[in-house]
Amino acid sequence: MLLRHAPTRLNELGHYQGQCDPSLSDVGYEIARAAAEHLQSIAFTRIDSSPQQRAQQTAALLRIRRPTLPDRTDIPGLRERNLGLLDTQCESCIEHRLPGLHTRITTDRVFPPPGGGETLTEVHARAHKALAEYSTTTSGPALIVTHGGVLKALVEDPAVPMTSPLHAVIVDVTNSTTAVATNVSLDALDATLAAL
Predict the structure, then answer these.
(1) Which position among 17, 91, 131, 157 has the lowest Cβ density within 10 Å, counted as fewest Cβ atoms?
(2) Angstrom distance (rounded) from CA 71 to CA 89
């Protein structure tokens, strides 16, 4: 299972994050703790994350009641999308100055953000490769904490919104299938998992 990290202060302020490395906000810590409680019944064999602090902190909180689980916090292929010059910038301010840019970078799979950012296609390729490599070294159900841009890139439908504080994408790399639960409550996440 891939899970988006809990919110940071930049999330709450409506800023792009990309490659910058903020920590979770107070609300983010609360959400991650609630998710840990809610996911406690799932017998994960690992809880891993991208190397970025917000993902590592979320994963650490998800592991708090599972201290003996192995963990890996350095899966570089699952780091957040490089947004170039947009990193840390206010989303609504950019949209005001450059109308349509946000829509273009979030729906056009081959359009790079200004300043050397990655396209959704590039993020999809590196994330898929990372998951394929990961699946060769991991057995049993694993939870990986990653980022909204990575989840959006992995989901082939560019219209899937990634705006809530918690998203889940369940990816079976072996069978190339993806089940998506977006903008979900924890109860809705249960329903999605039960449907698999």
Answers:
(1) 157
(2) 32
Task: Dump strand ranges (E) for 39-100.
Answer: 46-49
Which two tokens mark 19?
């490659």
**Overall residue count recorded for the chain in this entry:** 196
Contact 4, 180 (CB under 8 A): no
AA identity, residue 51: P
For 65, residues 6+ apart whose C-beta sits below 8 A from its C-beta are 36, 40
| Whole-number Å distance between alpha carbons of 138 and 174 | 12
Q: From CA 26, how far away is CA 14, in angstroms rounded?
A: 16
Closest CA to 66 of 147, 142, 146, 8: 142
Question: Rounded distance, CA 80 to CA 130, Å?
Answer: 13
Q: pLDDT truncated to tens, each residue of the chain (196 aa)?
A: 888 899 999 999 999 999 999 999 999 998 889 888 888 888 888 899 999 999 999 999 999 888 888 888 889 999 999 999 999 999 999 999 999 999 999 889 999 999 999 999 999 999 988 988 888 888 778 889 999 899 888 876 554 444 444 445 554 333 333 344 444 444 554 554 454 4
Sketch out the chain's domains with CATH numbers: 2-8+27-79+120-195 (3.40.50.1240)
**How far, rounded to the nearest angstrom, does the alpha carbon of residue 158 sit from its chain's CA centroid?**
15
Which residues pair with residue 171 across a beta bridge? 178
